[in-house]
Amino acid sequence: MGRVLDDIVSQADPSQTYSVFLPSTYRADRSWPLLLVLDARGQGHEAAELFAAGAEAQGFIILSSDLSRSDDDARPNLRAVAAMLEDARRSLAVDPKRLYIAGLSGTARFAWALAIRGDDALPGMGPVTGVITCSGGLPDGDPRWKKPTFAAFGTAGLWDFNYSEMLAQDAVSAEHGVPHRLETFEGGHRWPPSSVAAEALEWLRIQAMRSGLETPDAAWLERIWERRRAQARTLEEIGDHVAALGRYRDLVTDFPDHPGVAELREHIGSLAAEPEVVRRQKLLAKVLEREKPFRAKVALATRALKTENSPDAGKLMQDLGIEDLKRQAAEAGDVEERDGAKRYLAIVTGQTSFYLPRELFAKGRYGGAAAALEIALTIRPENPELWYNLACARARLGQAEGAIEALRRARDEGFSDPELLATDPDLEAVRDEPGFAHLLERLRTSEPRPGTSLAPL
User: Fold this and answer.
1) What is the pLDDT of residue 455?
2) What pLDDT was estimated at residue 1?
3) How far apart are CA 449 and CA 33, in angstroms?
4) Backbone φ and ψ of 301, nearest 5°
5) Distance of alpha carbon 158 from alpha carbon 189, whole angstroms
6) Which residue among 58, 94, 115, 374 sits deepest, i.e. has the most Cβ atoms within 10 Å of its Cβ?
7) Residue 4, class by beta-carbon neighbours within 10 Å (0-12 exposed, 13-18 middle, 19+ buried)?
8) 36-92 pLDDT per residue, tens
9) Where are the domains of the chain?
10) How many beta carbons lie within 10 A of that of residue 63, not counting itself?
11) What is the CATH number of domain 294-445?
């Protein structure tokens, strides 16, 4: 298998770096499909590794940016795409008719918009053949009236706060006759598992064969049909008829001319009419319908956190029904209710753990930031970054004892960056407090725990 090479400096734009993966079968006397990967935080290596196994199996070149961004304007991503694309054209045997872009969250929206706008967004880019949009749906102001000319593979965690957004993106694709697939997995707002990433590349290759961009390989397609049909049968045999139904429907969509489709359509009709399948699908629809009014409640809570000098985190949590949602997430009898409760909690933490605290810190509204973080910690008490940021907010508010206690909790949950603790200006007011020096010394003499260094708000 090929391997991921890191820290490649762009020839076209030396300010850009990226990781690259070439399949072990790569040679320069034939052309290869190109996948540009845009991680939400510019973690080029990790994102390239995620797609590497699928790229090896399906023969894709990967270039994965170190400088892509989710929560910024389009310019960093445009610059990253331009540099990687130009380098690939100069140095690699890429197929100009098979350009794919994968993104996560905000970079997924960017990928969709770029694929629709084409040369209008990036002159000389040419058409995009397909997108892999992970946990990020349609961009604001998306020209839905214009029929996209690319295939769209979306992914969403069942507990992702953007889950319903991905359903909407999939529906828009269906409305416009765009080849589309939405794959879900157990998890939250993140890249999918590598198995799903591999499935995305396999699916895009099927679409390339169907559209004539790649010569159809009948034996390979038949193996895919048999494997996926066996997977659906297994789901049906273990009693998960809803998941089996989804698999069968995807199979019929992807292989409309297969001789087994007619029989499969009849089976799909029977499966869809089963009372338990009907009940669960109605339940899912109800859970999704309740999301809109819940988001309205979250918007009210957000407004209070932004405008009140000393917002009451406890009252806001009560208004949002946080404790009830936590119980439902753990104890509800139906998986649709459990997943829905987890998504609702993720909607809250998506705001209160990052976006709101960052905005409120920038405005000096530390009371709102502290209340937001307290709400997030009720849902995610194991997160050291949230405890650390709460300590910073409390220190800015002059709540020394509470700040030190939050730092202790951050340490207990895995925070291990003594230099950040020693230099962060947000903690200046508590550095002379009893307990701070002891805490700092313990961090300096402890074994570092990987993955716990934080960036200050």
Assistant:
1) 45
2) 81
3) 39
4) -65, -40
5) 9
6) 115
7) buried
8) 999 999 999 999 999 999 999 999 999 999 999 998 788 999 999 999 999 999 999
9) 4-215, 217-273, 294-445
10) 25
11) 1.25.40.10
CA distances from 36 to 44, 66, 149, 357, 368 (A): 10, 12, 18, 32, 39
3-state SS track over the chain: CCCEEEEEECCCCCCCEEEEECCCCCCCCCCEEEEEEECCCCCHHHHHHHHHHHHHHHCCEEEEECCCCCCCCCHHHHHHHHHHHHHHHHHCCEEEEEEEEEEECHHHHHHHHHHHHHHHCCCCCCCCCEEEEECCCCCCCCCCCCCCCCEEEEEEECCCCCHHHHHHHHHHHHHCCCCEEEEEECCCCCCCCHHHHHHHHHHHHHHHHHHCCCCCCHHHHHHHHHHHHHHHHHHHHCCCHHHHHHHHHHHHHHCCCCCCHHHHHHHHHHHHCCHHHHHHHHHHHHHHHCHHHHHHHHHHHHHHHHHCCCCCHHHHHHHHCHHHHHHHHHHCCCHHHHHHHHHHHHHHHHHHHHHHHHHHHHCCCHHHHHHHHHHHHHHCCCCHHHHHHHHHHHHHCCCHHHHHHHHHHHHHCCCCCHHHHHHCHHHHHHCCCCCHHHHHHHHHHCCCCCCCCCCCC
Q: Any idea which architecture 4-215 has in CATH? A: 3-Layer(aba) Sandwich (3.40)
pLDDT at 146 over 80: no
pLDDT tens, residue by residue, 330-374: 999 999 999 999 999 999 999 999 889 999 999 999 999 999 999
Alpha carbons 120 and 79: distance in angstroms, whole number: 14
Q: What distance, in Å, lies between the first and last C-alpha atoms of the chain?
A: 40
Structure tokens at 196: 């799903």
Which residue do the tokens 């009236």 mark? 145
Q: Please report the pLDDT score of residue 147 as a whole number.
A: 66
Per-residue model confidence as pLDDT tens digits over 149-207: 899 999 999 999 999 999 999 998 888 888 999 999 999 999 999 999 999 999 999 99
Beta-ladder partners of 44: none
Residues 451 and 419 sit within 8 Å (Cβ to Cβ)? no
The dihedral built from the CA positions of residue 406, 408, 413 and 416, taken in this order, carries a sign that is positive
Cβ–Cβ contacts within 10 Å for residue 447, how many? Answer: 5
Nearest C-alpha neighbor of 173 from the set 191, 198, 146, 196:
146
Residue 252, C-beta contacts closer than 8 angstroms, at least 6 positions apart: 261, 264, 265, 268
Structure pTM? Answer: 0.91
